[in-house]
Amino acid sequence: xxxxxxxxxxWLQDPxxxxxxxxxxxxxxxxxxxxxxxxxxxxxxxxxxxxxEVLAVExxxxxxxxxxxxxxxxxNLKVQNSDxxxxxxxxxxKDYKLVTNLPYYISGIFFRIIIETNNxxxxxxxxxxxxxxxxxxxxxxxxxxxxxxxxxxxxYSTELGIKVSPKSFNPPPKVNSxxxxxxxxxxxLFSNLNFKEYSQLVKFAFSSPRKTLxxxxxxxxxxxxxxxxxxxxxxxxxxxxxxxxxxLGNWQGLLSLLISLEE
Length: 263
Description:
Elements: E1 11-12, H1 15-24, E2 32-36, H2 42-49, E3 53-58, H3 61-66, E4 77-81, E5 97-101, H4 107-116, E6 123-129, H5 130-137, H6 147-155, E7 156-164, E8 169-170, E9 177-184, H7 195-205, H8 213-221, H9 225-231, H10 248-262
Parallel strand pairs: 2-3, 2-5, 3-4, 5-6
Antiparallel strand pairs: 1-8, 6-9, 7-9
Helix pairs in contact: 1-2, 6-7, 8-9
């Protein structure tokens, strides 16, 4: 079936890559797997071999209709013709796993969804544009960060998987891809601050990447630069430091200071 470029369809065909993605998911027969965008079912076939229950969520109506015909008699496959941006994750079993060869155009929305949903996957294995994968694994735990990485790090530990060249797809995309693996933390990275407060701070800190942390926080907190400089003085930060340069310890100190403002 020809790919629909408008839907960002690129059929992953490399057997080694398909098996590697499946292996990353660490599946067993008791798992419940959500596969986003199964397409022609090349990855689906490997997921089904684990014996786990697979819910394939496909936006393309024709693909969703045809997919079950490729796996006759497979009672552990269910197909739902749905837009993942409107999908109800709250109805899924607890500790489900999520596996996807993700269309590039929805990557930002997708990661926001799995960060913000109350019912988060135990493990997510996502093949996405290499640049996006590399961005998300940055974190203060590893010495650098960005807004998306910081938001993901609150709930997930992240690591990079295998790189995938365009020739592994038909039709080939114009950029390289890479797998990213997200594992849900037992406790949030900063358990003393709820996610709403945390995400607000992160958005303030990264609001203008070229500006210093002090300038960004001054704008977000509606304070003067002098007031914020005084507030941050216990942290002994470089006045010119930017949010992406903060260490995990810096972030912990910053969060503690802002919590004390509200008490």
